[in-house]
Amino acid sequence: MNELNSKLLERAVTEVGKLPGVGRKTAMRLVLHLLRGGTDEVEALANALVHLKREVKYCQVCHNLSDTDTCPICADKSRDASMVCVVEDIRDVMVIENTMQYHGLYHVLGGLISPMDGIGPSNLQIDSLCRRIETGGVKEVIFALSSTMEGDTTAFYIFRQLEKIPLKDVELKYSTIARGISVGEELEYADELTLGRSIINRIQYNGK
Questions:
Q1: Do 71 and 47 sit in the same domain of this protein?
Q2: Does any domain span residue 1?
Q3: Which domain holds residue 126?
Q4: How far apart are CA 187 and CA 190, in angstroms?
Q5: C-alpha torsion 113→160→182→195, nearest 10
Q6: According to DSSP H, which parts of 3-126 are helical?
Q7: pLDDT tens digits, residue range 68-113?
């Protein structure tokens, strides 16, 4: 790979090219676009990214991204706190919220169990989910995980862990999004209409 005439340009292209899904040609196009723009625009972008990295937090309740210790969804008293939708990552929260069909709370795992990738239960936010259920108030856990082997394995593991929790005066209901989502499909790539209907028509989950 030939280096560019400008070392500053080369450095910028190299750094932008580290972003997922961004090849060298795309990185070059983006850097040249920024270079042609005004200094204020570039500084605004740089400042936004620096502030994002330094100041964004993870919600102490559901682990969604937030500007505060508790995210707006968890803090919203109009949401149905008796339902917790378990998702793989933050992008899934955004996708489900866009359907405008779900009005409960979320729990972001931060990934899926995948031994091949070295990701076990201890690497995910499963213990904190168990603690949420243990404190009471939750009547239904909805598994909104990808229809993949990793997604099914994760749902089954969580189901078994939650079953061990002794609950008083409540029988916890388990459900999973209806299989309008194709088998093997990542949740974030599902269209909003299909995903919305899958949440409304969710089915009982019994670990099978």
A1: no
A2: no
A3: 67-204
A4: 5
A5: -100
A6: 7-16, 24-36, 39-55, 72-75, 90-99
A7: 999 999 999 999 999 999 999 999 999 999 988 899 999 999 999 9
